[in-house]
Design brief:
It is a single chain. The chain is α/β, with parallel strands linked by helices and 502 residues long. It has 2 domains: 7-243, Rossmann fold (3-Layer(aba) Sandwich), CATH 3.40.50.2000; 250-458, Rossmann fold, CATH 3.40.50. The chain is built from 19 helices and 17 strands. It has helices at 34-45, 58-75, 86-105, 116-135, 153-159, 177-180, 186-193, 204-217, 250-258, 260-272, 291-304, 326-346, 363-372, 387-395, 412-415, 427-438, 442-458, 461-472, 496-499, and strands at residues 7-13, 16-20, 26-30, 49-53, 78-81, 142-146, 165-169, 198-201, 221-224, 229-234, 237-243, 277-284, 312-319, 354-358, 375-378, 402-406, 420-422. The structure holds adenosine-5'-diphosphate-glucose. Adenosine-5'-diphosphate-glucose is lined by residues 33, 171-172, 246, 282, 284, 319, 360-361, 366, 383-388, 391.
Length: 502
């Protein structure tokens, strides 16, 4: 691919979602988020096309195609839809994507439902995506496929006799070999992935896991090179495999957090929590986010360090997600049970320990909470990256926010030196980290947050897009420290007794 060749992006969801209005017409909802912000300018510059599901069934697609064309004119790049039937939404999206790949790749093997009809639907939908991509692209174009819903697209393009230059980015973790082999379709899925020309992961750990799977499960594998991108050679194929930590539009977050409407809300929040530190949690409802572990850690912090009582409040937003899957309903019940218990145990006149909200904040409200909070508590049991941690840091304009970050979030690879790291399964460690963060001197807070912000500013979402596309073109990417794989260090001298010869 040269700098000017056309770019085709494919993702499960389009950046525009259609829904039926009560009058029977169609309503457009614009997606938001860093990925869209970062990709749109590149798509405009490269006569690009974005292909994805616009939220409608196959039989409705024809009806909405002219609307998508009109929207393409407004956006400055083309959007093309792939329709899903209600059955496919069940089996492909809620089924294979979110009850097989999501739990397995997040180490929740016991939550997997390996229903063969889910796999069939996954193959069918990936084939349909490949067909639409083939129809809307030419052999010289570069196809950039996003995320775990579409791992088989490159192979399906070859099968459909529409070979293209392709790249794939996995937004979630890639599991270790011993988990990956539990997948009934492990060989097929691995073979599918090896049809991409470039595979990008969030961290060096994910890449290492993938390479170990390929080395073990595929015949005659060689790995060449070092640095951010290496080449995996399987037979005649050379596949580039890299680690590209996703990020945010740092400047936009920092600027919006400084705007008047946000500043006014920050002042309001501070007046609502007089003389108290806000510990903030913002998570999508998901068992991978470790929300019950966070609540248990917070409860223990209040028990172990009674001085924190009345001095701190946990503000926890849980954003609704995948509510049609029973496990998500269960985790919500578990969270609300714990919130009720902790409130019952500690609340007293004039102080509420947890402000829990199940819902959504608009952007100014989200930014105001990020900026007003003294601490952001992230306790994911496994997380591809965790953008909330980066957004909190970018919006922490006073520079004195403290980030408590799970060892198992992808962001740890970059931020391990300046965040307070926790093993979320270790409730005592979480409690101690909360105490440490809330009692940290201003000077240390500022030094740590200053370095965190600088890292995120340097490797922002535009750097991410640029680096991935450069890697696809085989260009040199320079040095970076973000490939480090975090391992918990033992306390100094801890193993001395076993190291002593007897
Ligand atoms: P998620 O699992 O959704 O993303 P995360 O990275 O934390 O997790 O991103 C959440 C996003 O939702 C943030 O950008 C945040 O601003 C947004 N958000 C939070 N509250 C919101 C609200 N009330 N309304 C609207 N938006 C809200 C997956 C992977 C992650 C990976 C990302 C990106 O699971 O590990 O970091 O993709 O690759």
């Amino acid at each position: 691919m040269t700098g000017s060749e056309r770019l085709i992006v494919a993702s499960n969801r389009l950046p525009v979602i259609l829904s039926r209005s009560p009058e029977g017409g169609w309503t457009f909802n614009r997606g938001s988020g860093g990925l869209i912000t970062a990709l749109e300018p590149v798509l405009r510059e490269r006569e690009g096309t974005w292909i994805g599901w616009p939220g409608v069934g196959g039989d409705e697609l024809e009806e909405v195609e002219s609307l998508l064309d009109r929207e393409s004119g407004r956006l400055g790049y083309r959007v093309r839809g792939v329709g899903l039937t209600p059955r496919e939404e069940e089996d492909f999206y809620l089924g294979f994507s979110n009850q097989v790949v999501w739990p397995l790749f997040h180490d929740f093997q016991t939550q997997c439902n390996f229903d063969p009809s889910f796999w069939q639907a996954y193959r069918d939908v990936n084939r349909r995506f490949a067909k639409v991509i083939g129809e809307n692209s030419a052999p010289g174009d570069f196809i950039w496929v996003q995320d775990y819903h579409l791992m088989s697209v490159a192979e399906e393009l070859v099968q459909a006799d529409s070979p293209r230059r392709t790249g794939f980015f996995l937004h979630i973790p890639f599991p270790p070999l011993d988990l990956f082999v539990k997948l009934p379709w492990r060989f097929t899925l691995l073979r599918s992935l090896l049809h991409y020309d470039l595979i990008g992961f969030q961290t060096g750990r994910d890449r290492r896991n993938f390479i170990e799977c390929v080395r073990t499960l595929a015949p005659n594998v060689q790995v060449e090179g070092e640095g951010r991108v290496v080449e995996v050679i399987v037979g005649k194929r050379r596949v580039k495999v890299g680690a590209f930590p996703i990020s945010i539009d740092f400047d936009e977050f920092a600027q919006s957090a400084a705007s008047n409407p946000v500043s006014e809300r920050v002042a309001r929040l501070w007046s609502e929590f007089p003389g108290r530190q806000i510990i903030l949690g913002v998570d999508r409802l998901d068992y991978s986010k470790g929300i019950p572990h966070k609540l248990q850690g917070f409860r223990l912090a209040l028990q172990r360090y009674p001085a924190l009582q009345e001095r701190v409040s946990l503000v926890q937003l849980v954003v609704p997600s995948r509510e049609d899957i029973p496990e998500y309903y269960d985790i919500r019940r578990e969270i609300e049970r714990l919130v009720g218990q902790i409130s019952g145990e500690f609340t007293r006149p004039g102080w509420v320990p947890i402000h829990y909200q199940y819902g959504s904040w608009d952007r100014p409200e989200l930014l105001a909470h990020y900026r007003a909070a003294a601490v952001n508590l992230v306790t994911s049991l496994k997380d591809g990256m965790n953008l909330v941690a980066k957004e909190f840091s970018a919006a922490s304009l006073e520079g004195s926010g403290v980030l408590i970050l799970s060892e198992y979030a992808g962001a740890t690879a970059q931020l391990q030196e300046d965040a307070i790291l926790v093993n979320p399964y270790d409730v005592e460690e979480v409690a101690d980290a909360i105490h440490r963060a809330c009692t940290m001197e201003e000077e240390e807070r500022k030094e740590r947050m200053g370095r965190i912000r600088e890292k995120i500013r340097r490797e922002d979402i535009f750097w991410w897009v640029d680096t991935f596309l450069k890697a696809a073109r085989g260009e040199d990417l320079g040095e970076s420290s973000t490939l480090e794989i975090y391992q918990p260090p033992a306390p100094p001298g801890f193993f001395d007794s076993v190291a002593t010869e007897s």
